[in-house]
Design goal:
It is built from 13 helices and 16 strands. By secondary structure, it is of the alpha/beta class. It has two domains: about 350 residues, 3-Layer(aba) Sandwich (Alkaline Phosphatase, subunit A), CATH 3.40.720.10; about 80 residues, Arylsulfatase, C-terminal domain. A hairpin with a 6-residue loop joins β13 and β14. The N terminus is likely disordered.
Length: about 500
């Protein structure tokens, strides 16, 4: 018999469990203490429990389809995890997840910024076909474009396949209005941020549960006081898992760490203080940053890592770990680092670039008894592959108009059955835009507006330092033709310099 997260400690002791337990405590006790302590904060905010569990049994009660948990970090670089080469930031739980599962070395985000990247993930479409192709202000009208009612999301498909679906964290695809809220896009439950601007702050004055906005009483955003939103989301994810453990569920867990603003409770920084690191002073403005950047950034990443570990322990405690596929990735490249952490690994560029550092992201899949521990793959995949992969797992047909290809054969070691992409496509139109990019086998092409195409061989030149366009005109012609055919016109996202930039010129 396991204990509910809301009943682990007596009420008068729960507040004490808000502090992180020391590593010397039994892992299950740490898990329960943390979940109970954060649950009391949720109760204090007036947030209700979703789908209360009917009993406390650990046994599997007929859940025949695998659970799927998709965890997405926000602005985490390819090189920010120990298993991907990070030397300074400690990520033991994600490293353990990688050693027990499968690491992709050539997995790509849907875009190089938040909103379009998430839209590609949800709809299975690349940026040439997606409804959302840019962040809220970067449209032809200056007004945000959200998912439409016609967009079929992975949540809708899985819900039709009998899954309970939930999103916890940042949604960011209902900027213009409430019509595109998660519950209208196939999700049964939503807890977190509706819009990107609010998600820039870790001590917000309000969050959303389903279609209701509620106040976080006691939170002071500028002073960074009250409930740390990441902790609330971590606790809510444990609750969602517990409540739905007897039936197939899909949890889309969107942590906002380590997106700006850079702030984290002091205890998360302590392992990185007094290490003689060079200082990175930060100034507050729109973002209420902590004063010192390096220890804060490291503390944020490690705090998220700890919560991923707690989630894994919770799956074991509930007896459903072997019945659950857990994926961890990031929505695009990093924004913060200036080579101190080597956040982009061996790659050129970062967030807002279509070079590899802006779009190639860490991707770890963990599924006991289904994925071979300690394995790696160089299979070329992208966010728009997740929808057909989820359909493959749920044994349902994906929508016809998707660009993705299921990577389930790679996950299960049946690589002889794995289909390959003829190419991957991205476009992006902000300050340097418009920019287009193609990945075709070993070749990577980047095209800036009114400039010659750049061409790189990623097998020989992973850092994209040597432009081979002049030496390979036949490849340039082939990729130019692909670029012209890869996109549908979109009135809100034309391939011309954005008027906001033209006005500044």
């Amino acid at each position: 018999m396991h204990r509910k997260v809301s009943q682990v400690l007596p009420k008068n002791n729960r507040q004490k469990s808000m502090s992180r337990a020391k590593a010397t405590i039994d892992p299950k006790a740490v898990l329960s203490m943390m979940a109970a302590g954060l649950w009391c904060v949720l109760l204090a905010t007036g947030c209700s429990s979703s789908n209360p569990p009917t009993d406390d049994k650990r046994e599997d009660t007929g859940n025949t389809k695998p659970n799927i948990i998709y965890i997405m970090a926000d602005d985490l670089g390819y090189g920010d995890l120990g298993c991907y080469g990070q030397k300074k930031i400690k990520t033991p739980n994600l490293d353990k997840m990688a050693s027990g599962g499968l690491m992709f070395t050539q997995h790509y985000a849907g875009s190089t910024v938040c909103m379009p990247s998430r839209a590609s993930l949800m709809t299975g479409k690349h940026q040439g076909h997606c409804t959302v192709r840019g962040n809220p202000r970067w449209t032809s009208t200056g007004k945000p474009v959200d998912l439409s009612a016609a967009d079929v999301t992975v949540a809708e498909v899985l819900k039709q396949a009998g899954y309970t679906t939930g999103i916890i964290g940042k949604w960011g695809l209902a900027e213009a209005g409430l019509e595109s809220m998660p519950l209208n896009q196939g999700f049964d439950y939503f807890f977190g941020y509706r819009k990107h601007g609010k998600a820039h702050h870790y001590y917000p004055d309000s969050l959303w549960e389903n279609n209701r906005q509620f106040a976080l009483t006691g939170n002071n955003t500028p002073k960074k006081q009250g409930a740390y939103s990441h902790d609330l989301m971590a606790a809510k994810s444990l609750e969602f898992i517990e409540n739905n453990r007897h039936k197939p569920f899909f949890l889309y867990l969107n942590f906002t760490i380590p997106h700006y603003e850079l702030t984290v409770p002091e205890e998360a920084k302590r392992p990185y203080q007094n290490l003689s690191w060079e200082k990175r002073p930060l100034k507050s403005g729109h973002y209420y940053h902590d004063e010192e950047g390096h220890t804060t950034y490291a503390g944020m990443v490690s705090r998220m890592d700890k919560d991923v570990g707690l989630l894994q322990e919770w799956l074991k405690e509930l007896g459903i770990d072997k019945h659950t596929l857990v994926i961890f990735t990031s929505d695009n490249g990093h924004e913060f680092d200036r080579e101190f952490f080597n956040s982009n690994g061996p790659f050129r560029g970062k967030k807002r670039d279509l070079y590899e550092g802006g779009i190639r992201v860490p991707f770890i899949a963990y599924w006991p008894d289904r994925i071979k521990p300690g394995s790696k793959t160089d299979h070329i995949a992208a966010f728009w592959d997740f929808l057909p992969t989820a359909c493959d797992i749920a044994e349902v047909k994906p929508p016809d108009a998707v660009d993705g290809i299921s990577y389930l054969p790679v996950l299960t070691g049946e690589t002889h059955r794995q289909k390959q992409h003829p190419y991957l496509y991205w476009e992006f139109n902000e300050r340097q835009g418009p920019i287009q990019a193609i990945r075709k086998g070993e070749w990577k092409a980047v095209k800036f507006f009114d400039k010659n195409m750049e061409l790189y061989n990623l097998v020989d030149d992973i850092a994209e330092e040597h432009d081979l366009a002049a030496e390979k005109p036949e490849i340039v012609r082939e990729i130019t033709s692909i670029m012209e055919q890869a996109r549908d016109p979109h009135a809100a996202f034309p391939l011309v310099p954005h008027k906001r930039i033209l006005r500044k010129k």
